[in-house]
Amino acid sequence: MAPVLNTSKDIILFDGVCNFCNGYINYVIANDHRNKFHFAPLQSKTSAMLSEMHKTDFEKLNSIVVAKGNEVLTQSKAVLYILKNLDIWWSPLINLAYLIPNIIRNWFYIAFANKRYSFFGRTESCMIPTAEVRSRFLT
């Protein structure tokens, strides 16, 4: 029997070897004072379990993923959802970004995602969370 995954919090799946993605996750952690999110690299067992549950190979999507209960958000929808739920003064302004059609937002997202390693580099292994946030990371 497969292990049961606790989905009481939204889970952000991110590219654990991408320097930009790791920086973004650190920004999210610093501004998620309500502890709304848990985190797991796309290269983790948690990501594999969620991929199986949702019948989607998240590693091949080339996208940040938010698993929100039974719903999955990817690309620009995932980024906007995350930013909207952070404790930052400008999060209400995120609503303006939703006025841009999804196809246009995702075009920019994909263009950036395809170049992120060129712009910011990559590491050989996934980031190791600090002791104070380790409990928010899923393996």
UniProtKB/TrEMBL annotation:
List the lineage, top down.
Bacteria, Pseudomonadati, Bacteroidota, Sphingobacteriia, Sphingobacteriales
Q: Where is the signal peptide?
A: none
According to UniProt, the name of this protein is Thiol-disulfide oxidoreductase
User: What is the scientific name of the source organism?
Assistant: Pedobacter kyungheensis
Question: Which InterPro entries does the record match to this protein?
Answer: DCC1-like, DCC_oxidoreductase
Q: Which GO terms describe its molecular function?
A: protein-disulfide reductase activity
The record ties this protein, via Pfam families, to:
DCC1-like
